[in-house]
């Protein structure tokens, strides 16, 4: 193979093993790939040749083939809005035994193409998360040997239309989700993929167990590194586990259909109003963490590092209880398994009457509802993830455990870990505490409250009895922080004092501080990263797995 | 009043009348306000004095007052998470006749405070969209003249807790939403607002009819200009119309509970998966419109001007049907009633089998469902908007009208308006066509399809029969465009050719174009601006009314 050509799937995948497998792989491959992408002319040329030869093959035989009309490329006009034919396509997920003997029209992706002989071939078609086995076998009514040949020279991942008869095999089918077969009578290619995919879906879908098994039998399987996956994300997200991950994320966000007949959504049913706050803001956001800066029509601006200030302003505007699902931007240089430069924040802010435990109560009930719902309604998706990335189900209590920071410190101390009682916990200590809590309370999900004031943002309300502590909390899943929340300061004088003490230039947040001068209710709230919820619920090892097109300090594309 | 002090409500409001009232007002006031904000020390000082004197007044009389415990400022600890008292607050919206004779505890905003005598005062308390009349009258069990005095020196918009007995007056109450009165027994101030608000809620809530009536009787009412409203958005959004606007927006977004028992959400029930695409992207987005540029860790980046490329990539990734609700950024210098630099986009993308009318069909059913739902389930909110901004209900058909661009041109021609048959329509012509369509078809909502290719983005699929036209459509409400949609090009070669023809640097979108090489299904989609849907459904005159904290070329704050 000429060096100017793109690597085949196995080449690309093997090179990625040189880096850190399935983790924060190095950039070796990325450079190669960049080169490759720049040289796609060669690829295209070859593709056109392949395509042309396939068509030629078909044309050659077509002359002598009485069933030539039963297969071939779909003319572009037919998928270019020429006419509404009225034909009815059946979804692959809907192919079940009760359709036995009936003719169906399906459109799917040719996931695998397996020639058996010149007279027979098997195809597995995929649509979304469903797959079905199709059999193409020469007969006297519709299928010719030329048609079988046409099928076997299709490139994997091409889009095809199949007309066929449903049948139910005697033995259960293990390789597909649907327990029926389709006897192909017509087969058309809607869109042909390139012959050599940068990654193979089967490779990308393998579990560690598959690798272990293969190793025992001396077979070397291709391993697709995390970086390669992200470079070819469009292929990577076609795996069952990835299809499931983003369906689960969507489900969590649909915060959250309480299990049950009425399908009431949790936040809505609690009287929360969904809002959208601006992401382009003046000044330097909340200070502290690094922000992305830009020029806004001649004014210095930055991207909001959270909707914090604006959701509080919405509370001052009389909305009572608000939530927002939206993009959050962090210019931090954190290159870890759990940080992104852009993620989806679920933010909640609410009036409280007297205690920030009113906020903790919403966290408790919301997340127990989310977890219950996932376990009850996303079994298929959780199974798909489990097959590739096995994990223990999350342990959580009906009433979420609440510990104080001081109690946490004490537990650590008793376990021999000394921690600064007025400092923050680091990731390692948090994990350790998570293990201790699991041992003692049998839960992977708990709230740690009353954090030292010094480690919380300036707008956090100090404790009434000890200003070294604050009315704040973090929430942990499997020992990792996913939620931060607190009562906020609603008194403009105290807010100004605290902002100044934290080194914030109060002039840049004057409209925020002024919002509390016109009658401001006591309030609190919290923020969650959507990607982290899914990552930790499923015990995935990298947040890039739960971000559709992740952004980190080194990745801005695709 | 010293010049260093902030203007009172009437001053601020009157100055804004100098600009364009209730419209795109000039910047005269903004400068004044900037000055004012910088000088808030003076304000704070005065506030503290006022607060101190109020407390003093109370203290003076408290000594001689046997009912001193029944009123006063709530000590900060009590709203600083000291304890969970177990007291139960009733929502103002829940105060109804059946509670007559019962004692309730409510927290609300002191919207109006009207002293009648030294022994009696009326308060109207507001919570979210509900208001209730409260009566404070000296008696022998709990209310002293000092308590009445305490009430009358409260500043409007302060947050108060009231304990009182519910009664039902003989005559209906016209000024509040709740048809009961609260006989106040205890009254505590939770948070005191400044004595002189920059805008009064009553002023901000007036309709044109109120102004007309007042003018007839020779009364001059204060008019709050759009710019002043946005400067003090936290106060402005407390009006009933604004509370309703953002509740309706949330309802539309909750796309969209189909009216009916099961509360199935429309897009979800149609098999769409909600996704989140990155807003930080490499290169120059889709080209064309101006983008906000920024530095991303040393790489040139910009803010996505739509999720277009990424939602198509999600389709190539096998999700079948996706939608996204998220921020969209446009650096255009459009300073009109209908453009924002940042808005909320509802984007949909879906596989199609053969015709882009499959996309139009989703638009049709989705929006008819949304409109039905708003009319059925948001009556209270629509009434609140109607009281301040009267509008005719939207006319729409059960099956949405679809006209071709050529038919539209012909209708305009017959009405004496000559339009370039291969050019775009301008705002004025669109409005004219909207009127013609309304006359002929009795609808304010219709789809115009088959636009000239030259006026559509590069990724738009040309028509099969005439490459001067495209498989695209716009959708109009009341003669204004709210939706753009089309079939997309799923063939990488054609996509490259079209991008080059449109002057796009294809290198910057190579990962997008490559996505179509791995088996790409025919697909189409559309995008909607959430703010425009609400603006046009309610026939509001300015998109700033439906954006919580709007961003335009001149506004980056609050």
CATH level-two architecture of the largest domain in chain A: 2-Layer Sandwich
How many helices of chain A in DSSP terms? 18
Count of individual beta strands of chain A: 17
**Form type of chain A:** elongated
CATH fold description of the largest domain in chain A: BirA Bifunctional Protein, domain 2
CATH top level of the largest domain in chain A is Alpha Beta
Report what the structure shows.
With 558 residues, chain A is of the alpha+beta class. The first copy, chain A, has three domains: 9-38 and 199-238, no CATH class; 45-191, OB fold (Dihydrolipoamide Acetyltransferase, E2P), CATH 2.40.50; 245-546, 2-Layer Sandwich (BirA Bifunctional Protein, domain 2). Chain A has 18 helices and 17 strands. In chain A, the strands form three sheets. Chain A has an eight-stranded mixed beta sheet with strand order 7-11-12-17-16-15-14-13, with helices on both faces. The longest helix of chain A is centred in the first third of the chain and has 23 residues, at 40-62. Chain A is elongated, with a radius of gyration of 28 Å. The two termini of chain A are 27 Å apart. Residues 1-31, 48-54 and 256-264 of chain A have low confidence and may be disordered.
């Amino acid at each position: 193979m000429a060096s100017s050509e793109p690597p085949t799937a196995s080449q690309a995948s093997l090179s990625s093993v040189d880096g850190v497998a399935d983790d924060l792989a190095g950039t070796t491959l990325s450079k190669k790939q960049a080169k490759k992408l720049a040289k796609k002319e060669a690829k295209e040329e070859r593709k056109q040749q392949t395509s042309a030869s396939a068509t030629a093959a078909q044309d050659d035989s077509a002359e002598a083939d009485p069933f030539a009309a039963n297969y071939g490329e779909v003319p572009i006009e037919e998928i270019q809005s020429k006419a509404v034919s009225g034909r009815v396509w059946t979804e692959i997920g809907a192919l079940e035994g009760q359709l036995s003997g009936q003719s169906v029209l399906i459109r799917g992706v040719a996931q695998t193409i397996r020639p058996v002989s010149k007279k027979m071939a098997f195809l597995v078609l995929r649509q979304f998360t469903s797959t079905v086995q199709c059999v193409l076998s020469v007969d006297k009514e519709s299928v010719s040997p030329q048609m079988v040949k046409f099928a076997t020279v299709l490139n994997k991942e091409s889009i095809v239309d199949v007309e066929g008869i449903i049948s139910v095999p005697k033995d259960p089918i293990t390789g597909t989700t649907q327990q029926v077969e389709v006897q192909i009578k017509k087969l058309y290619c809607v869109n042909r993929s390139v012959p050599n995919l940068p990654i193979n879906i089967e490779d990308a879908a393998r579990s560690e167990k598959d690798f272990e098994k293969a190793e025992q039998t001396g077979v070397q399987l291709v391993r697709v590194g995390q970086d390669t996956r992200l470079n070819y994300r469009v292929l990577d997200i076609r795996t069952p586990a990835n299809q499931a991950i983003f369906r689960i994320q969507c489900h969590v966000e649909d915060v959250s259909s309480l299990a049950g007949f009425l399908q009431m959504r949790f936040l809505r049913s609690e009287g929360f109003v969904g809002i959208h706050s601006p992401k382009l803001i003046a000044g330097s956001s909340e200070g502290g963490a690094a922000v992305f800066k830009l020029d806004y029509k001649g004014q210095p601006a930055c991207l909001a590092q959270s909707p914090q200030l604006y959701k509080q302003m919405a509370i001052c505007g009389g909305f009572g209880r608000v939530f927002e699902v939206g993009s959050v931007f962090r210019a931090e240089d954190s290159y870890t398994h759990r940080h992104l430069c852009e993620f989806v924040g679920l933010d909640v802010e609410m009036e409280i009457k007297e205690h920030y435990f009113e906020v903790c109560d919403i966290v408790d009930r919301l997340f127990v509802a989310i977890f219950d719902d996932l376990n009850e309604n996303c079994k298929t998706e959780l199974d798909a993830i489990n097959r590739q990335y096995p994990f223990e189900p999350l342990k959580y209590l009906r009433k979420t455990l609440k510990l104080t920071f001081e109690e946490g410190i004490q537990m650590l101390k008793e376990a021999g870990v000394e921690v600064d009682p007025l400092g923050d916990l680091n990731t390692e200590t948090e994990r350790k505490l998570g293990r201790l809590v699991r041992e003692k309370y049998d839960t992977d999900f708990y709230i740690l409250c009353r954090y030292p004031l010094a480690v919380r943002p300036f707008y956090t309300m100090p404790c009434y009895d000890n200003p070294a502590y604050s009315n704040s909390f973090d929430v942990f899943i499997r020992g990792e922080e996913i939620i931060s929340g607190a009562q906020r300061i609603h008194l403009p004088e105290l807010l100004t004092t605290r902002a100044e003490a934290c080194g914030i230039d109060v002039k840049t947040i004057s409209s925020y501080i002024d919002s509390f001068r016109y009658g401001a209710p006591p309030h609190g709230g919290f923020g969650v990263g959507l990607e982290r919820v899914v990552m930790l619920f499923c015990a995935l090892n990298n947040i890039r797995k739960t971000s559709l097109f992740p952004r980190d300090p080194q990745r801005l594309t695709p």
